[in-house]
Amino acid sequence: MLSSCNSSKSANQIHTVQGDIKVSELGLTLSHEHTMSNYGKDISEASNYDSVQLFNQVIPYVKQLKALGVNSIFDCTTAYFGRRIDYLKKISEETGVQIITNTGFYGAANDRYIPEFAYKASAQAIADIWIDEFKNGIEGSQIKPGFIKLGFDDGKSPSAIDTKLFEAGLLTHLSTGLTLAVHTGENLEAMLLQTQLLKKHNIHPSAWIWTHAYKLKDDATLIDLATQGAWISLDGFKTPNTTEYVNRIKLFKEKKLLHKVLVSHDGNGFPSGGAIRPFQAILEDLVPALLQNGFTQDDVDQLLFRNPEEAFRIRIK
Ligand SMILES: [Zn+2]
User: Fold this and answer.
1) Which of these CATH numbers, 3.30.460.10, 3.20.20.140, 3.40.50.720, 3.30.70.2190, describes 14-312?
2) I need a surface site. Which of 4, 271, 276, 317 has the fewest CB within 10 A?
């Protein structure tokens, strides 16, 4: 919707950790990865990394990605769950890959990465924190978020806190135009609740990315949501599921919905200090497989260039 509360940003710009760029400058984009995260650690330690080990591991890896053609990475590690804008900035500077960080709190993982104050704060008070990061920068820096990252717990009805965080996300969208990427997976109750709340706030479904949608095996539901305008994120690509991904993406192409699909790996460059969970298989395996199975280079460009550009364009929808 076009609100009277206009975004201060033009719809052609996006924030990276090194400043604003035009969305057309994103280039080949991985839309859901973790340059680093401390998944599994306690919230009190989630932002602590051994920076020497981290840089030694991640910088050469991201340089490899750059050599494969990756130009931009949307980093999905939230505040209180390992987001380090200072490290992201250094990695981006050293590698030449543009990194886009997020605002929001991560409601999945049994709520262990939600800060205590969020339980008592109102949705508006939480939104105000995220809007402030958008307007003024994160943690006193000049670095601004390029999207909102949220989550719902798997396998259960949406909790009060996850629902409140999502409502805060909607308020943030209405004030900033940032897109919401929400860990939803195969939780259909969470999906339905979100679509209802988007409607209630008069926000178009294209403001919303169904993150980890690949986990749902019912393609008809994914197609239905894509038809409504939602972004379907097939973001768990690994080489062994090449055939599955090719077939699913084919389905979207047949329905003329290729323009609603995002592909990524949910990789991790430094998972709690462990070995890299790679995020290069799309370029090495999926793209060649698509081209051998009736997709054109233009289709591939749609998936890896134009769709991320459109999905993350800063605009109140
Ligand atoms: Zn993720």
Assistant:
1) 3.20.20.140
2) 4
Q: How far is ligand 1, taken at its centre, from the CA of residue 252, in Å?
A: 23
Centroid of ligand 1 to alpha carbon of 255 (angstroms):
27
Q: What is the 301 CA–ligand 1 centroid distance (Å)?
A: 23
Ion ligand 1, residue ranges at CB < 5 A: 76, 266
Q: Mind listing the pLDDT tens digit of every residue in the chain (317 residues)?
A: 444 344 445 679 999 999 999 999 999 999 999 999 998 898 988 899 999 999 999 999 999 999 999 999 999 999 999 999 999 999 999 999 999 999 999 988 888 899 999 999 999 999 999 999 999 999 999 999 999 999 999 989 999 999 999 999 999 999 999 999 999 999 999 999 999 999 999 999 999 999 999 999 999 999 999 999 999 999 999 999 999 999 999 999 999 999 999 999 999 999 999 999 999 999 999 999 999 999 999 999 999 999 999 999 999 99
CA distance 200 to 221: 21
Q: How far is the CA of 34 from the centre of ligand 1 (A)?
A: 6
CA 33 to centroid of ligand 1, rounded, Å:
6
- Tell me the CA–centroid distance for residue 63 and ligand 1, in Å: 21
Question: Could you tell me if 24 and 12 are in contact, meaning their C-beta atoms sit under 8 angstroms apart?
Answer: yes
C-alpha span between 276 and 267 (Å, rounded): 8
